Amino acid sequence: MTPLPRPRTVLVTGAARRLGREIALALARSGWQVAVHYRASAQDAIETVAACASLSGASSHFEADFSDEAAVRGLLPRVIAHFGAVDAVVNSASLFEHDDATSFGFASLEKHLRSNTGAPILLAQALHQHVQARVAAGEAQAQGAVVNLLDQKLWNPNPDFLSYTLSKAALEAANTLLAMALAPRVRVVGVAPGLTLTSHMLSEDKFQQLHALSPLGRSSTPEDVAATVQFALDNRSMTGTTLLVDGGQHLMKFERDFSLM
Asked: Which of 1, 59, 61 is closest to 32 using CA atoms?
């Protein structure tokens, strides 16, 4: 009797809330086992795990502070120990704190680079090592994929949120470098949303107004972004590129960040 194939397992960082949660739920809906990473939102993570488990049958939550290199390095081994194997990482967690050319300093840049650039690179490194170990153990067809969440503002720059933007620009460059370095076993793809969710900085009316500022009359929805992440994970011919999911907002010129318009 042929054994049933092992369900695919994905680590989604920042999956307790907002866009990360939507991505986790979409992947669970399509049959992935989901490891839900969080930093401080423990109760939200528990609720996301319960929702994912009701869809795919397997999910668990894992805490890690991405400002701590040791915590980042320890995250994927913990997920592997729990699920047995990991097939993909979706780097959705992101620090987004305001600075600009007048308030910029080393501390802000370092904090954003640790969370938004360093952590995704370390997780890609760890996934590659894990896949290589599986190959060495006899799983000849083992493959992995990394999806990094970027931002349309990299193609439509403005000077707000300077350290955040620099950290995402570095991650976009890392897409290319990692795709080259980790091939053929691990693919690396970027997904760049436009304005997708509102925040405490925007009223609902203002969010709807800004969301409509695009050639298509609408920017990205959480469902759009999650579907694109799923597509990137499933398409085995794709690596070293970025998919912009923003209704064309990157084609327009905005003098300020959405949250400050």
From this structure: 59
